[in-house]
Design brief:
The chain has two helices and 35 strands. It is mainly beta. It folds into two domains: about 210 residues, TolB, C-terminal domain (Neuraminidase, 6 Propeller); about 70 residues, SH3 type barrels. The strands form nine sheets. A five-stranded mixed β-sheet has the order 1-19-18-17-16, with no helix packed on it. Strands 2-23-22-21-20 form a five-stranded mixed β-sheet, with no helix packed on it. The longest helix has 9 residues. The two termini are about 20 Å apart.
């Protein structure tokens, strides 16, 4: 039987520790990125599929469909809903929008301005492009929307002091919980454990623990707000800090730099990447003669490197080494128990959490598993032998 475990106590947030004079007690990793890292950069040549004059530099988010990305972009003078083809690198333009805000229940959320100059929100079907009015949430959305794996929605609100603060709310918008950090949410890991938050005022990037409800790491940055995103559950990518630099940097959820990278695209200088969920292709914002432009590249070589370095988990099989092992909805001790697995039972191991968790004398990842009866969820890795 797995030993009884309890949820770890909440770690004080940055605001609670702000005036603590002892830096060794501060639960935040503060990294000064300017000039950091002396290791030789790993270099990747990314074959170019296609390039267009579409400007997506100010786009805050996107929605991935089969062989394409929906977002908003400016091709000439108007901001429109666009679909970027990942096979050919071409762009299909649709109707004019004010902003692409994200996705809810497999529909895209956009804001538009009607003839009376009134801002409204619409939900768009990605296949038919049919539009419906968005729900009347009881919260104000001043920023893009993130949908977490547990169904929660994250966005940010502009305070009376002029600063952005992130918050979480449910689909009905009746419960709004403000996070104890300033900035806007830009990306959430698929294991639902970590949220990336960036301050539009300072550029700082915060790694927010959704389980402990506190900042796990803080990094200085000068990147465009909204473009710092998770590559996998465990790592995210930051662009170069200064014009003329070539090195990108890969960080883990503890705020530790794990690699320095260089990306080469023929005839293009990348500004930020939006990778597909399988990491085989990417939409890239590149520097243009006048305005930033859009390109699509192949990233298979980068994907293979992430796998070799252990940053990308590849699905495998496993066998349980103990009985009554809990299967939880998400990889936390507070998540709902969906069922149990017994010793000797074989499972598909589909995904790995972004970090290890120490429980008593154990220290292991969580794995998303599925057994032959279809029971699926997250189990603690100490009780699973990978095959």
């Amino acid at each position: 039987m797995p030993p009884a475990v309890h949820r770890r106590p909440r770690i004080p947030s940055l605001a609670e520790k702000r005036y603590d004079g002892g830096m060794k007690h501060l639960p935040i990793v503060l990294l000064l990125l300017f000039g950091a890292g002396n290791a030789q950069a790993q270099q990747f040549d990314l074959p170019l599929i296609g390039r267009t004059g579409l400007n997506i530099y100010s786009a805050m988010t996107y929605y991935e469909v089969e062989d394409g990305f929906f977002t908003d972009g400016i091709s000439k003078t108007r901001n429109r809903l666009v679909r970027i083809d990942l096979q050919r690198g071409t762009v299909a333009e649709h109707f004019e929008v004010h902003r692409f805000l994200g996705a809810v229940e497999e529909r895209m959320l956009v804001s538009t301005v009607d003839r009376d100059h009134i801002l409204q929100q619409l939900l768009i079907d990605p296949f038919s492009l049919a539009a419906n009015r968005a729900p009347k949430w009881e919260v104000s959305l001043d920023w893009a929307l993130l949908l977490s794996p547990d169904g929660s929605l994250y966005s940010a609100g502009l305070s009376s002091s002029g600063t952005y603060t992130p918050f979480r709310f449910d689909a009905q918008g009746r419960r709004q919980a403000w996070l104890d950090v300033e900035g806007v949410p830009t990306s959430i890991s698929s294991d639902n454990l970590h949220l990336l938050i960036q301050s539009p005022e300072t550029g700082e990037v915060f790694v927010w623990s959704t389980d402990e409800e506190s900042v796990r790491a803080r990094l200085r940055s000068s990147d465009t707000t909204g473009q710092v995103r998770f590559l996998t559950n465990g790592v995210f990518l930051l662009p170069p800090q200064y014009a003329g630099q070539e090195s990108w940097r890969l960080y883990d959820v503890e705020g530790q730099q794990v690699a320095e990278l260089r990306f080469r695209i023929t005839g293009a200088e990348p500004l930020f990447f939006w990778f597909t969920s399988d990491l085989r292709r990417a939409v890239v914002c590149v520097r243009g003669a006048v305005n930033p432009e859009t390109a699509v590249v192949k990233t298979e070589a980068f994907r293979r490197w992430l796998q070799r370095e252990g940053h990308l988990f590849v699905a495998t099989r496993g066998v349980l080494n103990d009985s009554r092992v809990r299967v939880r909805a998400y990889p936390t001790l507070s998540a709902q128990t969906l069922g149990h697995l017994d010793a000797g039972e074989q499972v598909e191991v589909l995904e790995r959490s972004g970090r290890r968790q120490r429980i008593g004398e154990m220290n292991a990842y969580w794995y998303r598993v599925r057994n032959e009866e279809g029971l699926a969820g997250w189990s603690y890795g100490h009780f699973i032998d990978l095959q």
